[in-house]
Automatic annotation (TrEMBL):
<feature type="domain" description="HAT C-terminal dimerisation">
    <location>
        <begin position="78"/>
        <end position="131"/>
    </location>
</feature>
<dbReference type="InterPro" id="IPR012337">
    <property type="entry name" value="RNaseH-like_sf"/>
</dbReference>
<protein>
    <recommendedName>
        <fullName>HAT C-terminal dimerisation domain-containing protein</fullName>
    </recommendedName>
</protein>
<dbReference type="Pfam" id="PF05699">
    <property type="entry name" value="Dimer_Tnp_hAT"/>
</dbReference>
<dbReference type="GO" id="GO:0046983">
    <property type="term" value="F:protein dimerization activity"/>
</dbReference>
<dbReference type="InterPro" id="IPR008906">
    <property type="entry name" value="HATC_C_dom"/>
</dbReference>
Length: 169
């Protein structure tokens, strides 16, 4: 993870050359670079360091790298095709982990010290309910229908019966 620092616009220096190579070597098989590409990566990084890029401190990481991905040489080919592969994969990591991290954080709020024996089905039900309320109308504006009340009563009855069975054991 420390090697990802080379993606920051301010870290586009020769000292981060090894970091980009380490990242390239860790890519999964479906996007892995060839040996030749890994050998050419340090040279391409040095060319990138020498490139005059006007950095705007308000640009996002995606915007900054998007400008670099669109750079072309005199022939019209991409200037930094190898770096482009590595950076695109690395930038996709943060997007793909965000929702999972958010979910784990929400679960941590549900399962507390005083609720450490909560069943996975209950956690799932709480998450679904919370998601529904967040994506529709606030809880105080929810329309409560008769079938919903019947389902709540049925769930309570099942819960009570299950607890009676465990109390008898």
């Amino acid at each position: 993870m420390a090697d990802l620092r080379c993606l920051a616009p301010t870290n586009r220096t020769v000292s981060y050359e090894r970091a980009i190579v380490r990242l390239a070597k860790k890519l999964p098989p479906d996007v892995r670079l060839t040996t030749r590409e890994i050998d050419n990566l340090p040279l391409e990084w040095k060319y990138l360091v020498l490139e005059k890029i006007i950095a705007n401190k308000y640009d996002s990481l995606q915007t900054h790298w998007g400008k670099i991905f669109q750079m072309r040489d005199e022939v019209g080919d991409k200037k930094f095709p190898i770096i482009s592969k590595v950076v695109k994969f690395c930038l996709s990591l943060s997007d793909s982990n965000a929702s999972a991290e958010r979910t784990f954080s929400q679960i941590a709020h549900i399962i507390r010290k005083d609720r450490n024996r909560i069943l996975p089905d209950t956690v799932n039900a709480v998450m679904v309910t919370k998601s529904h309320i967040e994506n529709t109308v606030p809880c105080y504006k929810q329309v409560i229908q008769k079938d919903l009340l019947d389902n709540v009563k049925n769930a309570y009855q099942l819960y009570s019966n299950r607890n009676k069975d465990t109390d008898l054991k």
